[in-house]
Amino acid sequence: MESGRVDIPSYSMYGLVVRSEVMLPLVPILGSSLLRPAWDFSYGSPGAVIPPLENPVAAIRCEHGSITCARYDLPDGTWIQAASLGTFHVASDGRRVDIYPMPETDELLLGHFLVGPVAAFVLDRLTYPSLHASAVVTEYGAVAFLGPKGHGKSTMAANFLRRGGELLTDDTLPLVRQGGVIWGMPGLATMKVWSETAKHTLGITDDLPGISPSLDKKVIALDGRYKRARQSVRLRALCVLNRYQNEDAKDSRISLEVLKPQQAVLALLAQASLPGLLLPPERARHLRLFADLAVQAPVYLMSFPDGFQHQEATRTRILAELQTLAEIRTT
Fold first, then answer.
1. Phi and psi (nearest 5°) for 277?
2. Are residues 322 and 224 in the same domain?
3. Average pLDDT for consecutive 10-residue bins of the chain (331 residues)?
4. Residue 152 CA to chain centroid, in angstroms?
5. I need a labelling partner for 116 at 20 to 30 A (CA). Which of 28, 86, 126, 160 fits?
6. pLDDT of residue 3
7. Which pLDDT does position 326 carry in this prediction?
8. Which of 107, 125, 143 corresponds to the end of one domain?
């Protein structure tokens, strides 16, 4: 991988323009040379010396306790070191990321890391904090789905997409305050789903590209296949997903419990993106935004049964609640 490409493509990410020397898993913007990027992804200069990185100020660890991603704050900015991928230097203003990949690093895998964790970190630096959430736009407004990994956020969003909904974002939901209202920013023109979700929820049986050979998650290009939002949208509801095992076939309860203000804010804080890489003062900045968001839009604890056969009933229940909220707003 070499620096110094003549034509550096630009991409649309989270409603912003990003210029990247690294190939990203997105379709480049045509005529992008006339656009001013919000930030740049660039390969570090050949021969550049990475400073000694010791005693990380924050880190993400795997289930066995090993550090998979570490953050180091130095006078020249922030350095992020990702195991098996490389080292990334984020300028103090967040406008530039220099990339120092490890030898033989797969550029596609590197691109997925850039549009995921690195982008979420930079967005926070640019004052766009984000939630670990997927969100869709319906005829009654936008709803976001939150929850830890494996709780069905992307599957829930895919359920709406197949039936005509618009995807606002998948996995990372940046927030922006405009005129006293908090909006969800549009995500990437792709979504990542497990093979079973692609087959049973979206009805896709053709071969889809994967994120990596070791992971069964597939990448779906939305343009030409599904609708997606291209502008920021006001959030009308947020659902913290609680999927339970449906051992009794007769038990298919779907409930939406409105969380009290304090519970709602704590739930949003728990689902902030990259908690392992953000420092306490940075997370504290999110408190006011999340508190205002919880006032603007109800935060629900949503319990629903596991199983693809319950998806239509789940979607119908959410739409009914959004319709009720819309009727209340117009009275």
1. -100, -5
2. yes
3. 63 92 90 77 89 93 88 95 93 94 88 93 93 96 91 92 94 92 94 90 85 79 91 96 77 90 95 90 91 96 91 94 94 81
4. 14
5. 160
6. 44
7. 95
8. 125
Amino acid at 96: R
Q: Which two tokens stand for residue 172?
A: 């990372």
How many other CB atoms are found less than 10 A from the CB of residue 220?
Answer: 22
What are the start-end ranges of the H helices in 149-308?
Answer: 153-161, 195-200, 261-270, 280-296
Asked whether residue 142 falls in the same domain as residue 104, the answer is: no
Alpha-carbon distances of 42 from 23, 196, 214, 250, 256, rounded to whole Å:
11, 36, 27, 55, 45
Tell me which H or E stretch contains 113: helix 107-113
To which residue do tokens 């819309």 refer? 326
Q: Cα 140 to chain center, whole Å?
A: 22
191, HSE (Cβ side, Cα atoms, 13 Å): 34
* 194, 60: one domain: no
Do 284 and 152 lie in one domain? The reply is: yes
Bridging pattern class, strands 181-184 and 172-178 = antiparallel
Structure tokens belonging to residue 181? 């209202």
Give the domain range for residue 254: 130-330
How far is the CA of 219 from the CAs of 135, 172, 194, in angstroms? 17, 15, 9
Q: What total of structural domains would you count in the chain?
A: 2
**Distance in angstroms (rounded) separating the CA atoms of residues 288 and 295:** 11
Q: How far is residue 73's CA from residue 71's CA, in Å, rounded to a whole number?
A: 7
Q: Is 3 inside any structural domain?
A: no
